[in-house]
Amino acid sequence: MPKVTIDGHSIEVAEGTTILNAARQIGGDCVPPAMCYYSKLDVSGGKCRTCLVEVTKGSEKDPRPMPKLVASCSTPIMDGMEVGNKTSAKVLDARKGVVEFLLINHPLDCPVCDQAGECDLQNLAYEHGASGTRYEEDRRTFDKIDIGANIQLHMTRCILCYRCVNTADQLTEKRVHGVLNRGDASEIGTYIESSIDNEFSGNVIDVCPVGALTDRTARFKSRVWFLNPMNAHRNCDKCSGETVAWMFGDEIYRITGRKDQYGEVKEFICNTCRFDTKDLAKWTIEGPRHIERDSVIGQGHYELTPSDSTKELKK
Ligand code: SF4
Ligand code: FES
């Protein structure tokens, strides 16, 4: 099996593995951030450039370094390859530039955004961003669009990662939204606000790395760090029924898929579980969910609350 070394850590991985996935197998600090790649999607990646890494040695056969930084989510490893992520000054500098680019049009409305506290861009900017911007032009702005009864698109926040488009392609038979136009004029278009009414359409909310697609049934109900994320399940004939119930006391404020340490859902869930089943009696609450990523949610110490009785979870 080909061997790759990332930030000094070596691992043997299957032929064709990308640098990003090899890094995820090593784990820890050598894993590059990813805003558009999504492991559960058949097609993703190559759009946002946050996962750039430096290949300092191409392979055993051809040890020349790659001339430019490469997108780790779409570059397969070669035997003997050596890669710099956090140890590369070039990568850290480029990442700062990428964050600046992503923020050119992204509004700084974290204080009123439902995604705040679990936003990939917020986390990325915190870790890699510069404190100022050199951009002097006006940001692009769009009106908010309701996509059906349950989803709202706030295009002003979109970073055009294409995750939602690829999710809809994968999970629905008749995708009714996509990226229209080119360059600065690109936008997620829904053609006369057609509703996305497929039973799995709500998953576009979970895959959106920013607050561009939000759950209308939970918008503005609570800051995410005031809620207790609980593993919950129910018998569902459409999906596994395994979800996270975000609770305040005995009340379920929202339902999402269960996410892994990279913020990616483990399984896509159906709209009935997500939007239409907020009644606590319909769920079996398993206990507090461990949020593996560094997160403001963990600051609430919700995991210390008793896990077996939702009665005792009152604030
Ligand atoms: S709406 Fe969200 S998921 Fe869709 S392209 Fe924009 S940022 Fe990505
Ligand atoms: S995660 Fe690789 S380009 Fe976006």
Q: Could you characterize the architecture of this molecule?
A:
The protein is about 15% helix and about 20% strand. With about 325 residues, it is of the alpha+beta class. It folds into three domains: about 5-85, Ubiquitin-like (UB roll); about 105-215, 2-Layer Sandwich (Alpha-Beta Plaits), CATH 3.30.70.20; about 225-315, no CATH class. The strands form four sheets. It has a five-stranded mixed β-sheet with strand order 2-1-5-3-4, sandwiched between helices. A four-stranded antiparallel β-sheet has the order 13-12-11-14. Strands 6-7-10 form a three-stranded antiparallel β-sheet. Strand 12 and strand 13 (about 250-255) form a beta hairpin. The protein is globular. About 35% of the residues are buried. The model is unreliable at about 305-315 (pLDDT under 50). FE2/S2 (inorganic) cluster binds near residues 35, 37, 45 and 47.
Features of the shown structure:
single chain, Alpha-Beta Plaits, disordered C terminus, 5-stranded mixed β-sheet, 315 residues, Ubiquitin-like (UB roll), 3 domains, alpha+beta, binds iron/sulfur cluster, 4-stranded antiparallel β-sheet, 6 helices, binds FE2/S2 (inorganic) cluster
